[in-house]
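Incident review: delayed structure delivery

Summary: a single-chain prediction request sat in the queue longer than the usual turnaround. Root cause was a stuck worker, restarted by the on-call engineer. No data loss occurred. The affected request and its eventual output are reproduced below so the record is complete for anyone auditing the incident later.

Affected input:
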Amino acid sequence: MPELPEVEAVRRELAPVLEGAHVSRVVLRRGNLRRPFPIEFERRIGGATVRRLTRRAKYLLAELSSNDTLIMHLGMSGSFRVEPADHTPEPHDHVIFELSSGRTVVFNDPRRFGVMDLVPSAGAAEWPALADLGPEPLSAEFDAATLARVCARSKRALKVALLDQHVVAGLGNIYASEALHLARLSPRLRAAAIATRNGAPKPAARRLAAAIKTVLERAIARQADYNDASRFRVYDRAGQRCRRRGCAGKIKRIVQAGRSTFYCPVCQRT
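Output delivered after worker restart:
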């Protein structure tokens, strides 16, 4: 399933096309994705202008001039593409947004695990999947102090805590492993171990907060295929040599909370 960098890359690709664009018409080529489309979905979006396109965790949010917000999730196989108005729909093109600019934004989803919902903008932040999310990892709100504070009372392993969306919004399994390696922290370390000391975040919290931002920004910049293990430091590289310069360790795979964790037992001892 696409992780935060892939969703953010999609947002950055679509924003210049959608922001400020007038939606002439919406075409639904089926009645549902993971669940049915909202009642009068086409009518409520058709005729509106997209004020801005943002992201919250792994969701895209299109704020409309109609005071509704279109909330979208790619699911396991969803993707967007921009086409000319006279394009021929492909199989699994389920939603088509026709713009007055002459361009068309198409949502394709072979497995139909994607989600599209339409809610009043004033209540979008309280939409069930968004209501209790933690801070955005790429925002100024997320820093070492915030990370240390939310981990302070946790008895869980650090990797498991990072996957809690109340701790960091949108951080997934791949980039949690990548960030821990960059920060030289063991995924087995108790989360509370990086908490504050004398009122200030410990060095481990500073390294980890910075590492999370770094691995996400790098992934967004290269728009990496999240299944391409050759681009990763540790993820899906069990048995291979650690890529940290000067480290002779080999990447190990363990299972934590039902998810695969990859790390180097040599340079991630603590």
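Verification: The CA atoms of residues 63 and 194 lie 38 Å apart.
Action items: add queue-age alerting; document worker restart procedure.
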